[in-house]
């Protein structure tokens, strides 16, 4: 096992350090925004800039990789992350922060695209599961560790921003100096979301809702912890609890969906999400321990549902269509992350911080309800043919104003799921 990790060691170390920096950035940014007295709506616009940058990077970054290679682009993107967080400390103006956070979103999406494609090319069938399981753990550990650096400094001055930039810069060294073989440039993929929807409506709608849920949480969750009066340490623990719940639930959800109609699992996830979100509203103001437990329940379905929809979309795809499907799903998910804070932010501003989970309740209800409606339109057996294997997705950020982790869909330039069958598309 250890020998099989040698070719990826430098990349995994860089990933760990990058996630520590991103975890710190993901919590210090909303804490500072709240300390400045900015409204939830203002913070929402900052969050929207981030998600716009992230989504655009999924389309643009592969072109840069084709032009100059993985390592040069990775160095450039991490440098942009360092610059963006330093600019946030130097120019504390919400209008400027929209631009800086857009840069951050673009850079982190591109960085993950490079890491994912690098790992996918170099792993073998014999070590794929081991390497990606370790990768998932690294993203989680780094995210949580970064969040817990916040209580060690003062978000109202520049110290934590500078520390974040330093860690980002240090994360470059292992990969920039590696002697391991570099991955080949990615293949360009086509984007046809309408075609994808016609073939698998439940996957596309579910991916959009998954993006809306994660985008709202990742950009406004930190605001929620501040508005309900949690300390920075308690807020970091709540964010970490949700992340841990998500990580622990990925494999059970995946195994269940491999053994039955995935749409049934979607319905179950929707029901759990509704119940957990309502419970979060009910326990707000209670003991922090109870909040942590309920947050873990929310997390158990908040992030894993995207991987569930990706697997469903690929179930009946031709092998040469996997890249196209993955690309389309990533774009739909990105559009969802843009809409999430735009919807949840004004609701929180009008009705208070717990309204965030009222929005979650609605989203989860639509998610499960739409899957149930699709089952009613097609018999259950039609969802059971030619299934690809579910793959647990690394928890990583698609937004940053609140949490250091989100769901990473496979990059738009690589084959997401390998299948030995050659089935035909069927609408679900």
Automatic annotation (TrEMBL):
Residue ranges of the region described as Disordered: 409-428
Descriptive protein name: MFS transporter
Pfam families reported for this sequence: MFS_1
Keyword entries, A-Z: Membrane, Transmembrane, Transmembrane helix
Comp. bias (Polar residues): 418-428
InterPro entries, per database record: MFS (IPR011701), MFS_trans_sf (IPR036259), MFS_YcaD-like (IPR047200)
Transmembrane region(s): 45-66, 73-92, 98-119, 131-148, 160-179, 200-220, 232-252, 264-283, 289-310, 322-343, 355-373
């Amino acid at each position: 096992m250890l020998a099989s990790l040698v070719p990826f060691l430098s990349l995994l170390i860089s990933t760990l350090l990058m996630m520590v920096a991103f975890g710190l950035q993901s919590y210090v940014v909303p804490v500072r925004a709240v300390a400045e007295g900015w409204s939830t709506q203002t913070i929402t616009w900052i969050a929207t800039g981030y998600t716009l940058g992230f989504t655009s990077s999924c389309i643009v970054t592969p072109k840069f990789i084709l032009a100059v290679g993985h390592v040069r682009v990775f160095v450039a993107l991490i440098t942009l992350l360092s610059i963006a967080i330093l600019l946030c400390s130097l120019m504390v103006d919400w209008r400027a922060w929209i631009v800086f956070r857009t840069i951050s979103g673009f850079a982190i999406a591109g960085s993950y695209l490079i890491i994912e494609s690098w790992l996918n090319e170099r792993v073998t069938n014999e070590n794929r599961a081991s390497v990606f399981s370790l990768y998932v753990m690294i993203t989680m550990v780094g995210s949580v560790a970064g969040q817990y650096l916040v209580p060690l400094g003062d978000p109202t001055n520049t110290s934590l921003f500078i520390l974040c930039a330093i860690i980002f810069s240090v994360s470059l060294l292992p990969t920039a100096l590696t002697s391991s073989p570099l991955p080949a440039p990615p293949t360009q993929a086509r984007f046809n979301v309408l075609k994808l929807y016609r073939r698998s409506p439940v996957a596309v709608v579910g991916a959009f809702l998954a993006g809306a849920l994660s985008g709202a949480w990742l950009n406004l969750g930190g605001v929620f912890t501040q508005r309900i009066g949690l300390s920075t340490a308690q807020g970091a623990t709540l964010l970490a609890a949700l992340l841990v719940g998500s990580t622990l639930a990925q494999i059970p959800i995946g195994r269940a969906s491999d053994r039955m109609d995935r749409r049934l699992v979607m319905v179950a996830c929707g029901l759990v999400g509704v119940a957990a979100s309502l419970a979060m509203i009910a326990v707000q103001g209670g003991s922090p321990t109870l909040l942590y437990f309920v947050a873990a329940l929310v997390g158990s379905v908040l992030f894993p549902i995207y991987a569930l929809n990706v697997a469903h979309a690929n179930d009946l795809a031709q092998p040469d269509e996997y890249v196209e499907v993955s690309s389309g799903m990533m774009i739909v998910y990105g559009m969802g992350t843009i809409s999430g804070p735009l919807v949840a932010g004004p609701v929180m501003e009008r009705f208070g911080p717990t309204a965030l989970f009222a929005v979650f309740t609605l989203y989860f209800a639509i998610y499960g309800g739409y899957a149930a409606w699709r089952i009613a339109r097609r018999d259950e057996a039609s969802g059971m043919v030619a299934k690809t294997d579910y793959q647990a997705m690394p928890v990583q950020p698609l937004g940053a104003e609140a949490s250091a982790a989100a769901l990473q869909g496979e990059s738009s330039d690589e084959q997401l799921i390998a299948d030995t069958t050659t089935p035909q598309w069927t609408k679900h």
